[in-house]
Amino acid sequence: MITPYGWFLIGFLDGIPQGVSPLQLGGRALIAVREAERVRIFDGRCPHRGAHLGYGGVLTDNNCVLCPFHGKHIQLGAPDKRLGIAEHQVAVAGAAVFVRIGDGASADRGFSTVLTELSSAAMVVSAVELEVRVPSGYVVENAFDIDHFRAVHKVPQIRGMNCVAGPDGELTIRTEFVTADAPWRAEAARLQGAASRTAEIKRSNSFLARAYSPHLVLTEFDDGNSSSIIVTGGVPLADGRTLARVAVAVPDGDITALAGLVAGARKALGEDLVVWEHLDTDGPERLDSRDNAVLAFRSFCGEFELAAAAMAGARWTDGVA
């Protein structure tokens, strides 16, 4: 069972109702508390007897949730209280809702700053929400699996690859796609019934992916005329499956590419799904030098596993004390 740590794309605003509602990150229960457009997220287990507060819990006027099991008033954002639960950092960018489990730079990796910039400069909308049968890390790992873009997504040519740690500890990979058109514009043209460019017309599209946790990656495409951003997240479910979510962003006021970008994100995830549904994630692997970025991502994930284990140990000690 995955112990959550770091940033997650936990949902979309239109899927989070007013009041108290349940959320799940692997084996960890959470609740969302929404009042108008404000969303807060807390641990979801009642400290009295373990009930999930998201199923029948009611928000009270004194910043508490009334537990559905015994009627206890559980104080929000007060983990040091006997009947209190911890609050987690939440950030909302357009339609996308993010939560961070864990404190400090090792959990944040600079994503708070990136979200602030994204919220002020771009229109962010939901594109995809889909259960997949692979562990959540696979959803983000694809951004670092360069050869899969050729085989699965039919990118005809990829030039160079540079995978390094970013200034805040995020993992970045930069490369260049050479295609007949920008990926999102090609899909927009298809939707509109426009003639596609001939294969001889080549366009260079810079590709920059930045993973801020094993479960969240922000990918930027730039064709020299415009740029677009795809935010991909994988939320681990209790049964080992993953809820994959994709949000897309374009600069404020530039909505011409939005429909194509959403359709392109759905198409790409559908192509990945064909592989994921039949993938043996427990089988042996024989990796080579083309998999160096994948190995770098897995090493990056290992940092979060260690931090999550340390956090879980601290929570257990606090509970015993």
From TrEMBL:
One of its GO terms (cellular component) is cytoplasm. InterPro entries: Cholesterol_7-desaturase (IPR050584), Rieske_2Fe-2S (IPR017941), Rieske_2Fe-2S_sf (IPR036922). Residues 7-99 form the Rieske domain. PROSITE patterns: RIESKE. One of its GO terms (molecular function) is monooxygenase activity. The keyword Metal-binding applies. It comes from the Bacteria. Signal peptide: none annotated. Keywords: 2Fe-2S, Iron, Iron-sulfur, Metal-binding, Oxidoreductase. The keyword Iron-sulfur applies. Gene3D superfamilies: Naphthalene 1,2-dioxygenase Alpha Subunit, Chain A, domain 1, Rieske [2Fe-2S] iron-sulphur domain. This is Rieske 2Fe-2S domain-containing protein. It comes from Nakamurella aerolata.
